[in-house]
Amino acid sequence: MTDFAAKSHTKPLIVLFHGLCSSPLEFNFLANYLKENGYRVDSPTFAGYAFGGNSTEWWSWVDEAASYVQSLQKSESIPVSVGGISLGSTLALAVASKLHNIHGVLALSTTLNYNGWAVPWYRSFIPFGILLGLGDLFKYRERDPFGIKNQQIRAYIKKVLASEEVSSVGGSFMTLRHMYQGNKLCSYVKHNLHKVTSSILTVHAIDDEIANTSNVDVVMNLSSSMHKRRVYLGNSYHMITVDNERETVASEVLAFLDEIYLDHQTNKLSDKIISPELQRFLRAESRSERNAKKSDKDTSQDNLKLW
């Protein structure tokens, strides 16, 4: 267990789950930022889910994570929030669907469907690989772009993984069995999102190469929370806590937590697009839609005149 936090229990506790076959290094920047601004951050590791060793069953990840958070709740005077990145976000949503009194969920690069532009074509054949006994034999090795859009950071990650097994964007590989169990976790969460009533913040990169933005729509449409906010980023890939907009991510997470813990004015929650390029695109698209509707209306009126 990695505890980035101060010991004062008067500060809210945020439990962050790292991605599959990874480590709490993914949260170095975010955790320090939150700690500096009045929060405590805990990022646990679970054998069989974190990097190193064979994969355990997906349900054991959920049970262990839920039990871990539940034990913390007993000693906290302020409601606990959970969050995560990538499959860690999925795990956080699973915990929120099982436990009561989870104050908020930080869903960063949520992965419920592996449908990004860099997902290997053979991912759909994972079940067949398991049937063939390749679960612990086949290892998918991390490769460009490593979830990173920034060229300098990507080069650094590549250098680190050449000599070490774990970097700030994850482990150097994951087994087929990890991937198979990860898929099962995704399926479980999609079927149980309606049980999530906590306030939810989703932060997602438009160019996420692992899980595209439709994953955000799934969370928004299927969860039962009354207070939801989505933030879209325009200059990052999957690992948004490490990439170009890590400061923006940290700032948006802090603003969300301050609103649900300090202001108690969750009606202020609203969606954001942190991308000038995307904002211009959406404005142009909106204009095109309006022009198309106007054209259809004019055509309809012309047809009526003919009659």
Q: What's the main sheet like?
A: 8 strands, mixed
* Poorly predicted spans: 1-8
The largest beta-sheet arranges its strands as 1-3-2-4-5-10-11-12
The total beta strand count reads 12
Overall radius of gyration: 21 Å
Oligomer: single chain
Separation, N- and C-terminal Cα atoms: 76 Å
Range of strand content: 15-25%
Compressed to H and E, one letter per element, the order equals EEHEHEHEHEHEEEHEHEHEH
| Global mean pLDDT | 87
Give the overall shape, derived from the CA principal axes: globular
Helix amount: 40-55%
Total helical elements: 9
What is the SS-derived class? alpha/beta
Could you give the topology of this structure?
Layout: E1 2-3, E2 13-17, H1 28-36, E3 40-43, H2 58-73, E4 81-85, H3 87-98, E5 104-108, H4 126-131, E6 139-141, H5 151-163, E7 166-167, E8 170-171, E9 173-175, H6 176-192, E10 199-205, H7 214-222, E11 228-233, H8 246-263, E12 272-274, H9 276-306
Parallel strand pairs: 2-3, 2-4, 4-5, 5-10, 10-11, 11-12
Antiparallel strand pairs: 1-3, 6-9, 7-8
Helix pairs in contact: 1-8, 2-3, 3-6
Written description of the protein model:
By secondary structure, the chain is an alpha/beta fold. Helix content is 43%, strand content 15%. The protein contains nine helices and twelve strands. It has helices at residues 28-36, 58-73, 87-98, 126-131, 151-163, 176-192, 214-222, 246-263, 276-306, and strands spanning 2-3, 13-17, 40-43, 81-85, 104-108, 139-141, 166-167, 170-171, 173-175, 199-205, 228-233, 272-274. α1 runs parallel beside α8 and α3 (87-98) crosses α6. Mean pLDDT is 87; it is low at 1-8.
